[in-house]
Amino acid sequence: MRHNKKRGMKLGTDASHTKAMKKSLVAALLANDRIKTLEPRAKAIRGDVDRVITWAKKGDIASRRLAIAKVGDKEIVREVFEKAAQGMWADRNGGYTRIMKLGPRKGDNAEVVIIELVTEAVAPKKTANVSKVEPVEAPAEAEAEAEPEAEATEPAAE
Fold first, then answer.
1. C-alpha angle 146/148/150, rounded to 5°?
2. I need a labelling partner for 31 at 20 to 30 A (CA). Which of 15, 57, 129, 134 fits?
3. 52: closest CA among 34, 78, 70?
4. Residue 125, in any domain of the structure
């Protein structure tokens, strides 16, 4: 029986082929920082890549072993852990990947995308300051200023 065996998207293949394909795509992305693939495949590996980078930021031996099991290559995992130790993703709390659409493929019209690792620093959110309120002019001052303008325009109209 296959109780509780579903692991995300099937991607049109059986479970063992899907697992192998995702493992090789994750390894290729972490090794090259950018790969070109189909949109469903990119969306399927996004969570795995984020999980490996989170383990790398943690940096302990248990996390390293989990990452080796997920990626399948010790050298790639070592490089990712070194990048994380140098602070590549220190200011980022997730969202380590970016998917950019390239358009449909010519042969079968499948959506082709580039998935890449985000290396830019996070821009802090600008919060709106409610305490800084511009002073509003009094209505009497506004009327007094409006009257001379009206008088200046009336003689010109006559």
1. 70
2. 15
3. 70
4. no
User: Taking each helix axis from N to C terminus, what angle separates 74-85 and 39-58, rounded to the nearest 10 degrees?
Assistant: 60
Residue 52 · residue 22 · CB < 8 Å:
no
Please state whether the predicted TM-score (pTM) of the whole model is above 0.85: no
- Structural domain of residue 46, as residue ranges? 15-117
How many domains in the chain?
1
Least confident of 20-24, 98-102, 149-153: 149-153
pLDDT in tens, 99-146: 999 999 999 999 999 999 998 887 777 776 666 556 666 666 555 555
Q: Is residue 139 part of a domain?
A: no
> Which one, of 33, 32, 78, 37, lies nearest residue 55 by Cα?
78
Q: Indicate which CATH number applies to the domain containing 109.
A: 3.90.1030.10
The residue to which tokens 């009094």 are assigned: 138
Tell whether the model's pLDDT for residue 40 goes beyond 60: yes
Give domain status of residue 74, yes or no: yes
Structure tokens at 1: 């029986």
